[in-house]
Amino acid sequence: MERTSTETYINAKPFLKWAGGKKQLLCEFDSRLPLHIRNGKSIENYVEPFVGGGAMFFFLKKHHRVKKSFLFDINRELIMAYKVVQNDCKALITELKEMEDIHLEKSEEARKENYYAVRKAYNLQMEDFDYENYGVEWVKRTAYLIFLNKTCFNGLFRQNRAGKFNVPFGRYRNPTICDEIGITEAARALKGTEIFCGDFTQSERCIEKGSFVYLDPPYRPLNSTSNFTEYSKGGFADPDQLKLANFFEEMDKRGAYLMLSNSDPKNEDPQDEFFDNLYRHYNIERVHAKRNINSDASRRGNINELIVRNYMH
């Protein structure tokens, strides 16, 4: 079923670079959507408990009619940015354009100084920032976040134990800091979407029979050099993975269509049955992907990732 002539095409994509982003796996996910969604190109109720960079959400909004959508993430900086893009994209673009103009006219050494000045201001602002009540200061902080994301090393979002952004400067010749078209399209995709700061369990209230739920938790580290689960200062360890598996089972009983992705521990240890045991009652598949985020460059390359579903078709 194609979009009707009254519907406007949305060409949205993530507005932040995000470690663990799923752009390279979208075709694999698309071919594994529930059959009625693939055939009808329509989703009644979509819930994403770990939105991250939002690659799956934006992909679905581009290719399907999503009637109701609910996005959750425990990272308050990320949720702040989504709400600003949703509600104040023009003001955000103005801020980013000014920051881009100032940054790009500088020499490389001056850009480095500018980066660390913005990072310091961003971290200092965190100490008494009001994350509960939306206000104009959210726009400036989101501009800081996007600036840092586009100019830092590898485009990582990483916090130390104190919750401070601690990624070093990245040496890019001509970074796009203000992607006006991308932010505008993201805002259009987010129109009417409900966005919440909270852990995955809080998404339960939005999940009903027939909902499509995509779960993309912080990945279980494949080895000691690939531990990039610290996207929020709380982390996500094996007990959290167990809690998530119980949540998956409860939402399965509710009648939701569930898809989950994670790293495959068998890449490192063929005997590691952690996820095979955890989701043994469900449909587990291994698909090829590239591992790009690793502090040891020699350990980047082709790997398998897991896709778990509670349905076959």
Task: Give the distance, in angstroms, between the N- and C-terminal Cα atoms.
Answer: 18 Å
Pairing-aware structural class of the strands and helices?
Answer: alpha/beta
Strand content: 15-25%
Shape category: globular
Strand order of the largest sheet: 3-2-1-4-5-7-6
Q: How many whole angstroms does the radius of gyration measure?
A: 20 Å
What does this protein look like?
- The structure is a single chain.
- By secondary structure, this protein is α/β, with parallel strands linked by helices.
- It has ten helices and seven strands.
- It has helices spanning 26-30, 35-40, 55-63, 76-87, 89-104, 108-126, 137-151, 180-190, 238-254, 274-278; strands at 42-48, 65-73, 194-197, 212-215, 257-263, 283-291, 301-309.
- It has a seven-stranded mixed beta sheet, sandwiched between helices.
- Strand 4, helix 9 (238-254) and strand 5 form a beta-alpha-beta unit.
- Helix 4 packs across helix 7 and helix 5 (89-104) packs across helix 7.
- The protein is globular and about 55 Å long.
- The protein starts with 25 loop residues before the first helix and ends with a strand.
- 37% of the residues are buried.
- Residues 1-6, 225-232 and 293-299 have low confidence and may be disordered.
Task: Itemize the secondary structure elements and their pairings.
Layout: H1 26-30, H2 35-40, E1 42-48, H3 55-63, E2 65-73, H4 76-87, H5 89-104, H6 108-126, H7 137-151, H8 180-190, E3 194-197, E4 212-215, H9 238-254, E5 257-263, H10 274-278, E6 283-291, E7 301-309
Parallel strand pairs: 1-2, 1-4, 2-3, 4-5
Antiparallel strand pairs: 5-7, 6-7
Helix pairs in contact: 4-7, 4-8, 5-7, 5-8, 6-7
